[in-house]
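Posted in: Protein Modeling Q&A

I'm a second-year student putting together a small comparison for a lab meeting, and my supervisor asked me to include a predicted structure for Taurine ABC transporter permease. I've never done this before, so apologies if this is the wrong subforum. The sequence is pasted below exactly as I got it from our records. If anyone can share the structure token output, I'd also love a short note on what stands out.
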Amino acid sequence: MTMSHVGPATKGAAPAPAPRRHIAPRTVDTLVQVSVIVALAAFWEFGARFGALNPFLLPPLSTVLVRLWTDLLSGVVLVDLGLTLYRALSGFLIAALIGIPLGIVMSRSKAVRWFFDPLISVGFPMPKIAFLPIFILWFDIYDTSKIIMVAFSCFFPIVAATYAGTTALDKWPIWSARSFGAREHEILWEVHLPMALPQILTGLQVALPVGMITTVVTEMLMGGRGIGGAMITAGRFADSVGVFAGIVEVIILGFVVVKSLEYLRARLLIWHPETRR
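Accepted answer (user: helix_wrangler)
Welcome! Here is the predicted structure, written out as tokens:
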């Protein structure tokens, strides 16, 4: 083969351009979220430092973080966080242990659904905190009434989500399992629950922040140790730094708890299309 047979494209061929690197959408979302938080924190700090905001009503963020660090070293924060987390998770687990089986039974039994459906429909939109005086009268002013109040608040979204998830199921997998001779309890564990699991987990993700909010509110109303109790005590003594330190503690605790449940959802639904996306 001579050089005359070499085409012009072969002689002057330029190297192929390097493929462009695309930033993942999740990375972009994370950067945007971090940027918004940093901007709000900077506005809070400099606004309070330079007089744009009243430093008593809104103390500088650095002062709040110093108080938080001091309380952390003394162990006060750990005790308050531990008590609040214990009450929130205890009530949440009680609600889940009762609400998930009840939602499943309601979807499979007309008699149970006939009895509980009006109660769930009436109780769901009600302000649950209105029952706190009743729980205090029935139980005590310590952890029992607080935990029951949290469980009562978390119960309704869990039952509603479980009932909706186990009712609106595709019939074809159920019919296929029955055609292969599967028994009803096998269909329940191997077909119903896996198919309804995304909806059940959604109900749990709705109920957990509700439980956190209810815990802090009950601690504020009833007093004692805990994040809510510490915040209301600081407010009574006009300690605005202590109040905002409690708010930061609630934000951090809520973020960690919610993200932990999201991670658990991703692990439990590793087979589901939503996790693959």
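A couple of things worth pointing out for your meeting: The first helix runs from residue 8 to 11. The chain has a mean pLDDT of 82.
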